[in-house]
Amino acid sequence: MADITANGQAGQPQLVLQKIYVKDASFEAPNAPQIFQEMGETEAQPQVQLNLGHKAVDLGNDLFEVVLSLTLTCSLGERTAYLAEVHQAGIFGIGGFTDEDRDGILGSYCPNLLFPYGRQMVSAMVQEGGFPPFLLQPINFDALYAEQQRQQLEGAGAHPLNS
Predict the structure, then answer these.
(1) Cβ distance 139 to 37 under 8 Å?
(2) What contacts 72, CB < 8 A, 6 or more positions away?
(3) What tens digit of pLDDT does each residue of 86-120 get?
(4) CB 110 within 8 A of CB 88
(5) What are the DSSP E strand ranges found in the chain?
(6) Contact 85/71 with Cβ under 8 angstroms?
(7) Which of 34, 94, 141, 159 is 20 to 30 Å from 5 by CA-CA measure?
(8) What was the pLDDT predicted at 39?
């Protein structure tokens, strides 16, 4: 990987984290308060599903906004216990890299850096919503990015994949 510096030397690859912030967050418990009683009375295990996505927007001047979307849905049978959604964002200065290296940084490194912040936000919302604590397991964004690249190469003549 290229040498990463933050001291502004011309011609040197640079990767600078400028800001991390929550772009959007929401929590819904559409079947409360009845769902709390159902969770205590039934032996059925809640089913939890995580939907993950990310996008990068070129802001110009080697600045990029990367948004990691985490949507956690917990269901008990056919009913939704809760839905927690966080769009964790960051602004990154990325300059002096090849297009391929820059795309790898945006597709793997940046989401990897944002994930712990988004995971903490989801966990806090679930607990403050009155539900048992839930901690998302670590995610291998390097493997996800590599798989996305592999699928794009295989489907070069097909429709592009949405991430």
Answers:
(1) no
(2) 48, 49, 50, 82, 83, 84, 85, 122, 126, 134, 136
(3) 999 999 999 999 999 999 999 999 999 999 999 99
(4) no
(5) 14-28, 47-60, 63-76, 79-95
(6) yes
(7) 141
(8) 85
Q: How confident is the model at residue 45 (pLDDT cuts 50, 70, 90)?
A: confident
- Confidence (pLDDT) at 55: 97
The full set of domains in the chain, from first to last, is 14-141 (3.10.420.10)
Q: Helices (DSSP H) in the chain: which residue ranges?
A: 34-41, 99-104, 110-128, 141-154
- Model pTM score: 0.84
How far, in Å, are 1, 57, 59 from residue 98 at the CA level? Answer: 11, 17, 18
Residue 153 has pLDDT above 50, yes or no: yes
- Residue 126 CA to residue 84 CA, distance in Å, equals 7
Torsion of CA 145, 21, 5, 116, to 10 degrees: -50
Residue 133 CA to residue 157 CA, distance in Å, equals 45
CB atoms within 10 A of CB 158: 9
Angle between helices 110-128 and 141-154 (to 10 degrees): 120
Sign of the torsion angle spanned by Cα atoms 27, 33, 34, 36: positive
